[in-house]
Fold this protein.
Amino acid sequence: MKLIVAIINNDDSMAVTSALTRENFMVTKLSTTGGFLLAGNTTLLIGSEDGAVARVEEIINHFSNARNTIVSTDKSLGRGLHNDDVAPEVHVGGATVFVLSVDSMRKF
Ligand code: 2BA
């Protein structure tokens, strides 16, 4: 069994979670904040059988869109970053996905 941790854009979260649940995958949605932009994003936890990981990744990839975002320098400054350290615009990927091996999963 695997635990898929997917960090996606808030704007894509409804489409991704809907598509996953339509195919009977179970999803937990967390409201998270990116450490660089300090903007809200969405982290999905998906427990799946090993053989289903590729399908989960396919769905996430299909519904996640890369975009350019303006860095808010006033948020970045004061955290040890200076004007020279931050680009005015960054390319945010469609999704960042980690796949972790799970020793066991139980529901009590
Ligand atoms: P943020 O940390 O807010 O990062 C947003 C985007 O800013 C990143 O897009 C990347 O293009 C850029 N960026 C991040 N750190 C940077 C740095 N030190 N210098 C220059 N540019 C930087 P993505 O790579 O697509 O990441 C989107 C979000 O996914 C991240 O939001 C973070 O919440 C998460 N993430 C990405 N890689 C991660 C990792 N290795 N571990 C944990 N979370 C990760």
Q: What stands out?
A: The radius of gyration is 16 Å.
